[in-house]
Amino acid sequence: MLLSVIIPNFNSGPLLEISIRRLFQYPSAISFEVLVMDNCSTDGSTDFINEAQFPEVYLISQKDGGVYYAMNEGIRRSTGDWLYFLGAGDCFFPEQLKESFFQSQADFIYAEVDQSPSSLRGKVSLSQLLHENICHQGIFYKRSAITRFGGYDPRYRYLADHILNIRFFFDPRMKKIHLPLTIASYLGGGISLTRQDGFFRKNKKKHILRELYRNPGFRNGLAVANYFWTVGSIQFTRAFARYSPSSPLERPSHFDHSSHFDH
Protein backbone atom coordinates (compact mmCIF):
# COMPACT_ATOMS: atom_id res chain seq x y z
CA MET A 1 0.00 0.00 0.00
CA LEU A 2 1.38 3.41 -0.98
CA LEU A 3 -0.55 5.73 1.36
CA SER A 4 -2.46 5.44 4.63
CA VAL A 5 -4.95 8.20 5.40
CA ILE A 6 -5.53 8.40 9.17
CA ILE A 7 -8.56 10.27 10.51
CA PRO A 8 -9.03 10.74 14.29
CA ASN A 9 -12.70 11.09 15.17
CA PHE A 10 -14.84 11.87 18.19
CA ASN A 11 -18.53 12.80 17.89
CA SER A 12 -17.96 14.77 14.70
CA GLY A 13 -21.56 14.58 13.50
CA PRO A 14 -21.82 14.71 9.68
CA LEU A 15 -18.23 15.94 9.18
CA LEU A 16 -16.54 12.55 9.03
CA GLU A 17 -18.84 11.36 6.25
CA ILE A 18 -18.06 14.51 4.24
CA SER A 19 -14.34 13.72 4.46
CA ILE A 20 -14.75 10.04 3.56
CA ARG A 21 -17.04 10.61 0.59
CA ARG A 22 -14.73 13.30 -0.84
CA LEU A 23 -11.82 10.84 -0.73
CA PHE A 24 -13.59 8.54 -3.20
CA GLN A 25 -15.41 11.15 -5.29
CA TYR A 26 -12.92 11.03 -8.20
CA PRO A 27 -10.65 8.33 -9.60
CA SER A 28 -7.18 8.41 -8.07
CA ALA A 29 -3.84 7.37 -9.53
CA ILE A 30 -2.50 6.31 -6.14
CA SER A 31 -3.47 3.40 -3.91
CA PHE A 32 -4.55 4.27 -0.37
CA GLU A 33 -6.32 2.92 2.68
CA VAL A 34 -8.29 4.92 5.25
CA LEU A 35 -8.16 4.32 9.00
CA VAL A 36 -10.79 6.04 11.13
CA MET A 37 -9.47 6.13 14.70
CA ASP A 38 -12.67 6.66 16.65
CA ASN A 39 -12.71 7.54 20.34
CA CYS A 40 -15.92 5.56 21.00
CA SER A 41 -18.22 8.19 19.51
CA THR A 42 -21.84 8.16 20.67
CA ASP A 43 -23.39 10.46 18.06
CA GLY A 44 -23.62 7.97 15.20
CA SER A 45 -20.91 9.75 13.21
CA THR A 46 -19.37 6.42 12.13
CA ASP A 47 -22.63 4.53 11.37
CA PHE A 48 -22.32 5.13 7.61
CA ILE A 49 -19.07 3.15 7.37
CA ASN A 50 -19.65 -0.32 5.98
CA GLU A 51 -17.41 -2.74 4.10
CA ALA A 52 -19.70 -3.00 1.07
CA GLN A 53 -19.67 0.72 0.29
CA PHE A 54 -16.20 1.60 1.59
CA PRO A 55 -13.97 -1.49 1.45
CA GLU A 56 -10.82 0.63 1.82
CA VAL A 57 -12.04 2.23 5.07
CA TYR A 58 -11.22 0.58 8.40
CA LEU A 59 -13.04 1.71 11.52
CA ILE A 60 -11.09 1.26 14.76
CA SER A 61 -13.17 2.28 17.75
CA GLN A 62 -11.45 2.40 21.13
CA LYS A 63 -10.87 4.81 23.99
CA ASP A 64 -7.75 6.91 23.59
CA GLY A 65 -5.83 9.48 25.57
CA GLY A 66 -6.20 12.28 23.05
CA VAL A 67 -5.84 13.04 19.37
CA TYR A 68 -2.11 12.25 19.16
CA TYR A 69 -2.57 8.92 20.94
CA ALA A 70 -5.12 8.09 18.25
CA MET A 71 -2.75 9.19 15.50
CA ASN A 72 0.11 7.13 16.92
CA GLU A 73 -2.19 4.10 17.08
CA GLY A 74 -3.13 4.81 13.48
CA ILE A 75 0.54 4.74 12.53
CA ARG A 76 0.94 1.40 14.28
CA ARG A 77 -2.07 -0.20 12.59
CA SER A 78 -1.65 1.23 9.09
CA THR A 79 0.23 -0.46 6.26
CA GLY A 80 1.10 2.41 3.90
CA ASP A 81 4.65 3.43 3.06
CA TRP A 82 3.47 7.03 3.49
CA LEU A 83 1.16 8.52 6.13
CA TYR A 84 -1.32 11.37 5.84
CA PHE A 85 -3.49 12.78 8.64
CA LEU A 86 -6.88 14.38 8.13
CA GLY A 87 -9.41 15.99 10.45
CA ALA A 88 -13.12 15.20 10.26
CA GLY A 89 -14.63 17.77 7.90
CA ASP A 90 -11.37 18.45 6.05
CA CYS A 91 -11.20 17.28 2.44
CA PHE A 92 -8.23 15.52 0.84
CA PHE A 93 -7.86 15.49 -2.96
CA PRO A 94 -5.99 12.25 -3.81
CA GLU A 95 -6.76 12.70 -7.51
CA GLN A 96 -4.20 15.52 -7.54
CA LEU A 97 -1.36 13.11 -6.77
CA LYS A 98 0.86 10.83 -8.83
CA GLU A 99 2.79 7.81 -7.61
CA SER A 100 5.96 9.41 -8.93
CA PHE A 101 5.68 12.09 -6.22
CA PHE A 102 6.40 9.41 -3.62
CA GLN A 103 9.16 7.61 -5.51
CA SER A 104 11.84 10.15 -4.65
CA GLN A 105 14.17 9.83 -1.69
CA ALA A 106 12.02 12.26 0.31
CA ASP A 107 11.05 11.68 3.93
CA PHE A 108 8.67 14.63 4.25
CA ILE A 109 6.48 15.97 1.42
CA TYR A 110 4.33 19.05 1.84
CA ALA A 111 1.93 20.90 -0.43
CA GLU A 112 -0.65 23.68 -0.34
CA VAL A 113 -3.98 23.61 1.53
CA ASP A 114 -7.02 25.66 0.62
CA GLN A 115 -8.21 27.90 3.49
CA SER A 116 -5.13 26.96 5.50
CA PRO A 117 -4.84 28.68 8.89
CA SER A 118 -1.10 28.98 8.29
CA SER A 119 0.32 31.95 6.41
CA LEU A 120 3.20 29.79 5.15
CA ARG A 121 3.14 29.21 1.40
CA GLY A 122 5.62 27.59 -0.95
CA LYS A 123 8.94 26.23 0.30
CA VAL A 124 9.37 26.65 4.05
CA SER A 125 12.61 27.21 5.96
CA LEU A 126 13.48 26.13 9.49
CA SER A 127 13.51 29.80 10.50
CA GLN A 128 9.89 30.17 9.35
CA LEU A 129 8.80 26.89 10.92
CA LEU A 130 10.09 27.89 14.36
CA HIS A 131 7.50 30.69 14.36
CA GLU A 132 4.59 29.02 12.56
CA ASN A 133 3.61 25.49 11.64
CA ILE A 134 2.86 24.03 8.22
CA CYS A 135 -0.80 23.11 7.88
CA HIS A 136 -1.11 19.50 8.99
CA GLN A 137 -3.45 18.63 6.10
CA GLY A 138 -0.69 19.47 3.63
CA ILE A 139 1.94 16.97 4.86
CA PHE A 140 2.89 13.41 3.92
CA TYR A 141 5.30 11.57 6.23
CA LYS A 142 7.37 8.61 5.14
CA ARG A 143 6.64 5.77 7.55
CA SER A 144 10.29 4.91 8.17
CA ALA A 145 11.04 8.56 8.97
CA ILE A 146 8.17 9.28 11.35
CA THR A 147 8.75 6.02 13.23
CA ARG A 148 12.42 6.95 13.61
CA PHE A 149 11.23 9.94 15.64
CA GLY A 150 8.80 7.80 17.63
CA GLY A 151 5.68 9.37 16.13
CA TYR A 152 3.93 12.20 17.95
CA ASP A 153 4.83 13.20 21.50
CA PRO A 154 1.41 13.13 23.24
CA ARG A 155 2.64 15.36 26.07
CA TYR A 156 2.01 18.19 23.62
CA ARG A 157 -1.78 17.93 23.73
CA TYR A 158 -2.59 20.10 20.72
CA LEU A 159 0.69 20.99 18.98
CA ALA A 160 2.66 17.75 18.84
CA ASP A 161 2.64 18.00 15.04
CA HIS A 162 4.53 21.32 15.25
CA ILE A 163 7.16 19.73 17.48
CA LEU A 164 7.46 16.77 15.11
CA ASN A 165 7.85 19.03 12.08
CA ILE A 166 10.55 21.03 13.87
CA ARG A 167 12.45 17.79 14.42
CA PHE A 168 12.18 16.94 10.71
CA PHE A 169 13.49 20.35 9.67
CA PHE A 170 16.41 20.31 12.12
CA ASP A 171 17.63 16.88 11.03
CA PRO A 172 19.84 17.12 7.90
CA ARG A 173 19.18 13.44 7.14
CA MET A 174 15.51 14.17 6.49
CA LYS A 175 14.90 15.13 2.85
CA LYS A 176 11.97 17.53 2.46
CA ILE A 177 10.13 18.23 -0.81
CA HIS A 178 7.50 20.85 -1.58
CA LEU A 179 4.77 20.16 -4.15
CA PRO A 180 3.39 23.36 -5.71
CA LEU A 181 -0.20 22.15 -5.82
CA THR A 182 -3.28 22.17 -3.58
CA ILE A 183 -4.03 18.76 -2.11
CA ALA A 184 -6.66 19.50 0.57
CA SER A 185 -9.10 22.01 1.97
CA TYR A 186 -9.19 22.89 5.65
CA LEU A 187 -12.52 23.16 7.47
CA GLY A 188 -11.27 25.33 10.32
CA GLY A 189 -11.79 25.25 14.06
CA GLY A 190 -9.26 22.49 14.82
CA ILE A 191 -7.98 21.91 18.33
CA SER A 192 -4.58 23.50 17.66
CA LEU A 193 -6.39 26.79 16.96
CA THR A 194 -9.11 26.67 19.61
CA ARG A 195 -7.15 25.40 22.63
CA GLN A 196 -3.96 26.39 24.38
CA ASP A 197 -1.15 23.85 24.68
CA GLY A 198 0.47 24.78 27.98
CA PHE A 199 3.17 22.13 27.67
CA PHE A 200 4.15 23.50 24.25
CA ARG A 201 4.17 27.09 25.50
CA LYS A 202 6.41 26.30 28.49
CA ASN A 203 8.85 24.04 26.63
CA LYS A 204 9.11 25.29 23.05
CA LYS A 205 12.42 27.15 23.53
CA LYS A 206 13.91 24.25 25.44
CA HIS A 207 12.83 21.86 22.71
CA ILE A 208 14.39 24.08 20.03
CA LEU A 209 17.67 24.14 21.94
CA ARG A 210 17.53 20.37 22.33
CA GLU A 211 17.18 19.93 18.58
CA LEU A 212 20.08 22.31 17.94
CA TYR A 213 22.17 20.33 20.43
CA ARG A 214 21.34 17.15 18.48
CA ASN A 215 21.86 18.76 15.07
CA PRO A 216 24.44 21.54 15.30
CA GLY A 217 25.45 23.52 12.27
CA PHE A 218 25.64 27.05 10.92
CA ARG A 219 22.20 27.14 9.29
CA ASN A 220 20.43 25.59 12.26
CA GLY A 221 22.27 27.86 14.68
CA LEU A 222 21.44 30.94 12.62
CA ALA A 223 17.73 29.99 12.50
CA VAL A 224 17.62 29.48 16.27
CA ALA A 225 19.51 32.71 16.99
CA ASN A 226 17.07 34.59 14.74
CA TYR A 227 14.11 33.00 16.54
CA PHE A 228 15.39 33.99 20.00
CA TRP A 229 16.09 37.52 18.80
CA THR A 230 12.68 37.87 17.13
CA VAL A 231 10.67 36.73 20.15
CA GLY A 232 12.66 39.07 22.41
CA SER A 233 14.00 36.23 24.52
CA ILE A 234 17.18 36.13 26.59
CA GLN A 235 20.43 36.16 24.70
CA PHE A 236 20.69 33.02 22.60
CA THR A 237 24.35 32.24 23.38
CA ARG A 238 23.67 32.45 27.11
CA ALA A 239 20.60 30.22 26.79
CA PHE A 240 22.49 27.62 24.77
CA ALA A 241 25.44 27.68 27.16
CA ARG A 242 23.07 27.00 30.06
CA TYR A 243 21.18 24.29 28.19
CA SER A 244 21.72 20.64 29.11
CA PRO A 245 20.23 17.76 27.12
CA SER A 246 19.23 16.20 30.43
CA SER A 247 17.13 19.23 31.36
CA PRO A 248 13.58 18.01 32.04
CA LEU A 249 10.62 19.49 30.22
CA GLU A 250 8.18 21.39 32.41
CA ARG A 251 4.53 20.55 32.89
CA PRO A 252 2.25 23.60 33.23
CA SER A 253 0.63 24.14 36.63
CA HIS A 254 -2.89 23.58 35.21
CA PHE A 255 -2.33 20.63 32.89
CA ASP A 256 -5.24 19.94 30.53
CA HIS A 257 -6.26 16.28 30.69
CA SER A 258 -9.01 16.60 28.05
CA SER A 259 -8.90 13.89 25.41
CA HIS A 260 -11.59 15.16 23.04
CA PHE A 261 -10.90 15.73 19.37
CA ASP A 262 -13.50 18.28 18.35
CA HIS A 263 -12.72 19.62 14.89
UniProtKB/TrEMBL annotation:
Residues 4-99 form the Glycosyltransferase 2-like domain. The keyword rRNA-binding does not apply. InterPro entries: Glyco_trans_2-like, Glycosyltransf_2, Nucleotide-diphossugar_trans. It comes from the Bacteria. Pfam families: Glycos_transf_2. Signal peptide: none annotated. The keyword Transferase applies. One of its GO terms (molecular function) is transferase activity. Keywords: Transferase. This is Glycosyltransferase involved in cell wall biosynthesis.
